Here is the input.
Amino acid sequence: MDETARSKYLKIALLVTGAFSTFGVYPLTILWPSGWAWHAEGHSLYLQMIIGIYATLGVFLMIAAKDPADHRSLIWFAVWSSVVHGGIMAIQAVAYPEHMGHLYGDVPVLLVAAAVIAFLMPGKSARATTAT
Here is the structure.
């Protein structure tokens, strides 16, 4: 894939991931709590906090989509924090069978989004070429 196409798809991936993080996570916690909400019963302060964090990250990913080269550290934070968060959730879902639904919900979404964005990020040589 050439750098022009990679850049175009990266911008799309950032917009989609950002919009989903901002507007999609909360509805899924209501519609499919066993795959998206870790405290499915009752009021959860944790859920409010995590939705706030992901909504904020989502807004910044949508901003980063305009010029990913200027937002590399934010994008890599989104990638690696998603890998870490998804990995921890996967281990917890296996360790606590009542959370197995997350292996079909939020865990793969985080890991796939991280993989797609990481794949589309330009390498160091592309960054040096675009900087000149």
